[in-house]
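Bug #77: duplicate submission created two jobs. Keeping one. Sequence:
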Amino acid sequence: MRLYLLFLLLVQGCGLVVGKFDDFDDTDDIVEYDDNDFAEFEDANEDAAEEVLQKVTTVQDDEEEATVELEDQEDFEDPDIVGEGDAEGEPFDDEEFEGYEEADRPSSRSKDPIKIVNVPHHLQNSWESYYLEILMVTGLLAYIMNYIIGKNKNNRLAAAWFNSHKELLEGNFSLVGDDGVNKEPTSTGKLNQENEHIYNLWCSGRVCCEGMLIQLKFLKRQDLLNVLARMMRPASDQVQIKVTMNEEDMDTYVFAIGSRKAMVRMQKEMQDLSEFCSDKPKSGIKFGLPDSLSILSEMGEVTEGILDNRMVHFLSNHADKIESVHFSDQFSGVKIMQEEGQPLKLPDTKKTLLFTFNVPGIGNTYPKDMESLLPLMNMVIYSIDKAKKYRLNREGKLKADKNRARVEENFLKMTHTQRQEAAQIRREEKKRAEKERIMNEEDPEKQRRLEEAALRREQKKQEKRQMKMKQIKVKAM
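Kept job's structure:
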């Protein structure tokens, strides 16, 4: 009985279900029973499905284009290389490109064609672009080579001169080549190099002279600019010798002989020649000298006494090498040029013999040419002995003393105004210092006494001046 009732309930339930589905067959009934809350989501899903379908279609088109391009490139690729890129040739996953728009992917067909532009000529790497650097390097190398060659040549010339004169110098001087480094004089027996073109040699230890300084002044062969300048204006190497005589071993006179050009220049530049030899340079023809040599002398007696036969022989045979010979007891060097005025005292003087010789060759000198200067060194030794022996007569001595007194008097006259101004400045400075001392005094009583003492001293000076003026008036009457 129970089973029969259960079967009836099941049959009735199935009938209800079938009736319910039959109700949904009608379109109007579906709309009534439809839940409108999810309708908008169902529409969005349908739109998204359409967009996904379009994107998939676009991706497939792009893949086909890429496949075509790859097939075109395979003809130019190496088979070995193609084999290595299997991993990279795998097909792309469509899901990786979701969300990309077609406009964001640049099309290879829309790219502009590549344009090859020629590089400007001035930017190309060629030797013509570095001509300035090449010139600078070439000039630097030329300067370095000229420096080495010129320095070595001057060194060889100096060594050749010293080797040819060493025996003569050692025979007349006990000390040859003192460098002045040691406290006691020491003979080094070699030249002292001052720079690349000047060499010095000091000799001493001979009667009637304090010493002799020999200076070899060569051309600046190590300087390329100087070498180029000498092509336009040739010059010669020179040997300058300065002998300082003892005060008692030389008389009072001024004398010079040399080329006319050198005499005119020295008369303008040298202090002693401009003061004691005011006449123009005279020719030495009447003394048996070549016309190229001129004479400056303080007195005619001096010229006749110095130019003896042996001296004339030296000068005549080597006139082309002699620039100047200068004997003076008033040698003080070149004139002192001061912007503010003349010096207030006479310069210190020494009795000196000066010799300047030109090396043969006019710049194109060789070591063998230095031996030709040996006779001129013999003339220097002879001149030292000649200056010691020569003495002025009584009239010449008086005239020489008169000339020196005249020069001193002219100097005092020229500097009288300057000395007065200097004395006035000293007096003013003294008064100023005294006033400052009085003003700095803190004690009023002591300050008053100092002022009264200064006033009394000033009154005494005024009285002395008045007394002198009265005496001068009485003498004038």
